[in-house]
Specification:
Layout lengths: L2 H22 L4 E6 H15 L5 E7 L8 H18 L2 E7 L3 H8 L7 E6 L5 E6 L2 E7 L3 E7 L1 H17 L3
Helix pairs in contact: 2-3
């Protein structure tokens, strides 16, 4: 075969290869975000996207290890929580047992009827928020860093993990 024949054969199979490639691609994005201001953009998007009655899952809710500015972080999440409540977004949260008294005071179901909180024995400087096809992994260290993942597969995996822990967590 000469080069012209090989090129013609390649041209014939390229559309089929591109079709297979494009059909296997999913709409995925990963973004790294620093600081509370970046988080605010993401969480405002969460409130905008979710409709009344839809659920946001919080896995391993935490204020971190105390190095991040705790009062600022608490005020930020209280503001977001109030926005969720006003819109009727359901929030299911799994918090660390050692944060029960603070969390009960800040997010009680009397104050926020759309919120349900349970507790489990796990301490971590990481919190994971899942909604729709999005996952936010927040790392509370000297500064707050977040990994924002847009992927149905990842979000569904974390939702399944959440549900397993939810069944064993205490009220």
């Amino acid at each position: 075969e000469n080069i012209v024949d090989i090129e013609k054969k390649a041209q014939l199979i390229i559309p089929e290869l591109l079709s297979k490639f494009n059909s296997s691609k999913t709409d995925e994005e990963i973004e790294l975000i620093s600081g509370v201001h970046g988080l605010e953009v993401i969480f405002r998007e969460q409130v905008d996207l979710l409709k009344k009655g839809e659920t946001c899952y919080v896995l391993g809710g935490t204020w971190g290890n105390g190095e991040a500015d705790e009062p600022t972080v608490q005020a930020f999440f209280e503001k977001i929580h109030l926005m969720r409540e006003k819109k009727g977004i359901l929030t299911k949260m799994l918090f660390n047992n050692n944060q029960k008294s603070t969390t009960d005071k800040l997010y009680s179901s009397k104050k926020y009827p759309s919120t349900t909180t349970r507790y489990f024995d796990h301490t971590s400087p990481v919190a994971i928020n899942v909604y729709e096809n999005k996952t936010i992994i927040i790392i509370f260290g000297k500064k707050i860093s977040s990994i924002y993942i847009k992927s149905s597969d990842v979000a569904n995996s974390f939702k399944q993990y959440f549900e397993l822990l939810w069944k064993t967590a205490k009220r």
